[in-house]
Structure formats: structure tokens, C-alpha cells
Design goal:
The chain has 260 residues and is of the alpha/beta class. It folds into 2 domains: 166 residues, Glutaconate Coenzyme A-transferase, CATH 3.40.1080.10; 49 residues, no CATH class. It has 7 helices and 13 strands. The strands form 3 sheets. Strands 1, 2, 3, 4, 10, 11, 12 and 13 form an 8-stranded mixed β-sheet that branches. Strands 5-9-8 form a 3-stranded antiparallel β-sheet. Strands 6-7 form a two-stranded antiparallel ribbon. Strand 8 and strand 9 form a beta hairpin. It starts with 9 loop residues before the first helix and ends in a 21-residue tail after the last strand. This is 3-oxoacid CoA-transferase subunit A. GO terms for molecular function: CoA-transferase activity. Keywords: Transferase. It comes from Agromyces agglutinans.
Length: 260
């Protein structure tokens, strides 16, 4: 593999993602999402996708574009409350959903990238996350067509106290799509603020990682101590520039003079 991982366009970067692929997609809300790569995938109309991401964008932006076009079969997420079309598809039985606690989802992605098959966590013990029964897919009549299965629970002694832990399996996907503030030709990436939450983990979990970067620099231009994700995890880099559209998921304002 050449050390220069750059590709000339987003279209070329996602050209080999097939129908039925699984994707880990970085970002948090609408912050740091790979919007250019998502648009390129939308233009190809690649369907039957299984997507792992903290959320599914909004109705007209981010992963919500793929959802609205009927291209997503299953979502694995921790928060889905900002997308009306998501609600409609899920409740009508068109979309499968695997709800996962946010920290658990992050660790499942990290574990997948680190080669760890599974891990134990206290999160979800005593709830349907561990006991099963969470609706994963509804039937058209509103009944539950498929529910989550029970997960193994085991007792461990921690600091002299016996506690129950639930076994969670790691996540790996066929591809990962991430957005970075800066990257070099070797694939070393720097993420911007809260966009760092899920993006490095999603990148690690994908067997093929595609990164869009706002600024492409030459190898050595990024201080090694400032690299958030080393290039060993990245397979393709495409520069998208800093003038791409960025949206705020929910803008909250107050009247002039109100408060301090």
C-alpha cells in the first residue's frame, strides 16, 4: 500500500462501497459529520446499508439524507430524537434499530478497532439492554416483529464489592466514514473539539476507513503529539476544504437584554 492515501474526489473515495455494506460514521449530532462523503454516497444510491453512528442526523442533513432516500436498513445508535422520518420508518417497520447506551457504543467501536471481541460493563444491568425485549423492528400493524435478545450477565468483585456486569460484543464494520479538521497524506488526522468524541472510534472500527479533511498537509506538518488518530487506521483521504456547509442541530437563542 502506498503511503500517499489521498484520492482526488469524494465520489472516488466511496466508489467501492457496495449495497448491503456496514458503515461506522463519525460525528456527534451534526458536529464533525462526513457530510461530503455522505452526499457522494447518496448520489450513488447505494442501499440496504447497516449504519453505526451516535445518531442519524436530521431530516434534511447528514445521515438523514440517506435515511430519507430509503438507503438505510438498520441503525445502531444511542440517540435518535431529532429525526421525524427516523421515527416514522422505525414505528412503521421499515427500519431496524439497535439502541445502545452512548458510552457502550463508543467502547464497542473502540474494542472492535483494538481487536477486542467483547467486554463487560455495568451500563444496562437490570434493564432491557441486558434482559432483552427492546423493540428492534416493528411490524406494519404496530406489533413487535423483532426484539433484542438477553445478554450474558456475570458477577465480578470490584473493590471488595460484588457487582453485576453485562457482556457487550465489539463492533466492526466494512467501511468507516469520518470528517477531520486536518490530515496529512499518510492518513494522520486531527479532529476539532467535540467532533473527536466518536470519530476516532468509528475510524478504528471500519475495515476500510475513508476520511474527508478540511485541510490536507504534507507528512511532518502535524506535530506527532497532536495526532488524534494515526494513519495506520486510515485508508483514504480526500480534501474537501473549509468552505463546506456546516449546520447547527438545534439553535437556542434568547431575547436581547435577557439574562446577564
Amino acid at each position: 500500500m502506498t503511503l500517499d492515501k489521498t484520492v482526488p474526489s469524494a465520489a472516488e473515495a466511496v466508489a467501492d462501497i457496495p449495497r448491503g455494506a456496514s458503515l461506522a460514521v463519525g460525528g456527534f449530532g451534526l458536529c464533525g459529520i462526513p457530510s461530503v462523503l455522505i452526499q457522494a454516497l447518496l448520489e450513488r444510491r447505494v442501499g440496504d446499508l447497516s449504519v453505526v453512528s451516535n445518531n442519524c442526523g436530521v431530516d434534511d442533513w447528514g445521515l438523514g439524507l440517506l435515511l430519507g432516500a430509503g438507503l438505510i436498513r438498520k441503525m445502531t445508535s444511542s440517540y435518535v430524537g431529532e429525526n421525524k422520518e427516523f421515527e416514522r420508518q422505525y414505528l412503521s417497520g421499515e427500519l431496524e434499530l439497535e439502541l445502545t447506551p452512548q458510552g457502550t457504543l463508543a467502547e464497542k467501536l473502540r474494542a472492535g478497532g483494538a481487536g477486542i471481541a467483547a467486554f463487560f460493563t455495568q451500563t444496562g444491568v437490570g434493564t432491557q439492554v441486558a434482559e432483552g425485549g427492546l423493540p428492534r423492528r416493528y411490524a406494519s400493524d404496530g406489533s413487535i416483529a423483532e426484539a433484542s435478545a438477553p445478554k450474558p450477565v456475570q458477577t465480578f468483585t470490584v473493590r471488595g464489592e460484588e457487582r453485576e456486569f453485562v457482556l457487550e460484543e465489539a463492533i466492526t464494520t466494512d467501511f468507516a466514514l469520518v470528517h477531520a479538521l486536518r490530515g496529512d497524506r499518510h492518513g494522520n488526522l486531527v479532529f476539532d473539539k467535540s467532533a473527536r468524541n466518536f470519530s476516532p472510534l468509528a475510524a478504528m472500527a471500519g475495515r476500510v476507513c475513508v476520511a474527508e479533511v478540511e485541510e490536507l498537509v504534507e507528512p511532518g506538518a502535524i506535530d506527532p503529539d497532536s495526532v488524534h488518530l494515526p494513519g495506520i487506521f486510515v485508508d483514504r483521504v480526500v480534501e474537501v476544504g473549509r468552505d463546506i456547509e456546516k449546520r447547527i442541530e438545534r439553535r437556542t437563542v434568547r431575547a436581547a437584554g435577557e439574562g446577564n
